[in-house]
Amino acid sequence: TIRCQSTSTDGPKTRNLLDNASNLLTNFLSGGSLGSMPVAEGAVSDLFGRPLFLALYDWFLEHGSVYKLAFGPKAFVVVSDPVVARHILRENAFSYDKGVLADILEPIMGKGLIPADLDTWKPRRRVIAPGFHALYLESMVKVFTSCSGRTISKFEELLEREGLQGGEAIELNLEAEFSSLALDIIGLGVFNYDFGSVTKESPIIKAVYGTLFEAEHRSTFYIPYWKFPLARWLVPRQRKFQKDLKDINDCLDGLIRNAKETRQETDVEKLQQRDYSNLKDASLLRFLVDMRGADVDDCRLRDDLMTMLIAGHETTAAVLTWAVFLLAQNPSKMKKAQSEIDTVLGQGRPTFDSLKKLDRNVELGQTVIIKYAPRFRFIRLIVVESLRLFPQPPLLIRRSLKSDSLPGGHKGKKDGYAIPAGTDIFVSVYNLHRSPYFWDKPHEFEPERFLAQRNSEGIEGWAGFDPSRSPGALYPNEIISDFAFLPFGGGPRKCVGDQFALMESTVALAMLLQKFDVELKGPPESVEQVTGATIHTKNGLWCRVKKRSDVKRSDVH
Ligand code: HEM
């Protein structure tokens, strides 16, 4: 048995010779500087049967916001503190790369942005980030509404086919439905390819799911057997993976070829001001191919497309899944959301304007107060609160490229910890988002919590919540919370698709709730969590979906 051993002063002292030897070896190999850090204790068997991030939460409460987790000779530093997270992700970001994550993802994403080493990442990020400009996002809102419309029509047809009246419900696995929806959106948004997965199955869709499944398997399997030279030919699942990968790559190569054949090279500024309303292909691929000076070999371009396909698919599907899971248990919040949707949309569809425009609320009291509140304020808060409770991914992975000195952090050692080069780190977003030190009732679904401005209560090094730090932001982010809330990471490697994903989730959720009431089919406990790159359910999110009976007809904005 390999046990994770404790050197902290509290907690049980389960030791054996093997543990001590492995820790000594780890410390020796890593320069020994982690020696004074609390070490999480528990058998590796603690990790079986439940996701790793949940075990890391228990150890966080026991050992504090920076601790070491040792698996035999392998050790990870687990960070659950905003000050330390800010240091690793932003202040000293270029002293870290993606470490274990890059090892796992490289066979799938190659040198795409997520796993890329710093030298590869820097020029590619400069090329890709401008692609997510305002007019692109505006044209994407049309993609979000038309794809969400297909999902809604599918549900309506199913209800009709079953001959069900207003009050009766169909049973659907909404996780699977959201996965199809997000796949269709990302296909169109990134390379103008319509998977059409809401309504059909195809070999390419199966290949995409096969690849995602393998990425997940690799991120949770401790021995990287796929690296053995013959594994790709001898192990059936690896053979299938190679075939899936080839099918997707062939498809992407075809799309790249097409885009290059119709290339219209121009400068970034001109691309960002194109008339998107008349553009047949508004995709990111079009932008990247047409951008002057962004020449890159097809292989690198393919890596980037594959990265965005994977990064933008499961994550958004998971946000929608958990948002519905939470709303279904809070019918009063679902009603509140529906009443907001009725007011903003009536029977209409969301538009870029309706997402961005501000509503003018006039409050009459002794004086007249005019407040400007973004539309869909409550839906937005539901989206971010879902991301707080179920961050995707729950852990960010880093490896130090050189030795570094971590700040002490909240309740930490005053002078922090020195870490040697090569230290593997998990920044636990899940722990940060549910930290009892920064959130009231951290496990409860309270979208309104983001409206309550909070100060830092004297927590050293942490500036507290302050919306004025990010004026104009439509959604709470890591800046207003000074890294206590980081659903899209932070610093230079922050998600490039954050606004895309937030608007997509807002539109999809608004359109679903505009038409339907949703409740869980079974008890919430039966919706167990499993994790790979994202948190998803064990057996699907089975819900009863029925037409809303209380739709209020109001102005269409
Ligand atoms: C990076 C979350 C949607 C593309 C990241 C990171 C997070 C994240 C936490 C940082 C990873 C790290 O620091 O290790 C999410 C969530 C999404 C979402 C929660 C949906 C709700 C998207 C979409 C796209 C996208 C829609 C593209 C269309 C990327 C890329 C990176 C990234 C390319 C790497 C950025 C870099 O290293 O420069 N995402 N993401 N993501 N995401 Fe997203």
Primary descriptors:
557 residues, alpha+beta, 18 helices, 45% helix, binds protoporphyrin IX containing FE, iron ion binding, monooxygenase activity, heme
Provide a descriptive summary of the structure in words.
The chain is of the alpha+beta class and 557 residues long. The chain contains 18 helices and 16 strands. The strands form six sheets. A five-stranded mixed β-sheet has the order 3-4-12-9-5, with helices on both faces. A hairpin with a 3-residue loop joins β14 and β15. It is globular and about 65 Å long. The N and C termini lie far apart (63 Å). The N terminus is likely disordered. Bound molecules: protoporphyrin IX containing FE. The site of protoporphyrin IX containing FE has 22 residues, from α13 and α18.
| Ligands (ions, cofactors included) | protoporphyrin IX containing FE
- Helix percentage range: 40-55%
Tally the helices. Answer: 18
Strand order of the largest sheet: 3-4-12-9-5
Task: Name the shape in a single word.
Answer: globular
Distance between the termini: 63 Å
Q: What topology emerges from the helices and strands here?
A:
Elements: E1 3-4, H1 17-29, E2 42-43, H2 52-63, E3 66-71, E4 74-79, H3 82-91, E5 96-97, H4 100-109, H5 118-128, H6 134-161, E6 170-173, H7 174-191, H8 203-220, H9 231-234, H10 236-261, H11 268-272, H12 284-290, H13 298-328, H14 331-345, H15 352-356, E7 358-364, E8 368-374, H16 377-389, E9 395-400, E10 404-406, E11 417-419, E12 424-428, H17 429-433, H18 498-515, E13 516-520, E14 529-531, E15 535-537, E16 542-547
Parallel strand pairs: 4-12
Antiparallel strand pairs: 1-2, 3-4, 5-9, 6-16, 7-8, 9-12, 10-11, 13-16, 14-15
Bound molecules: protoporphyrin IX containing FE.
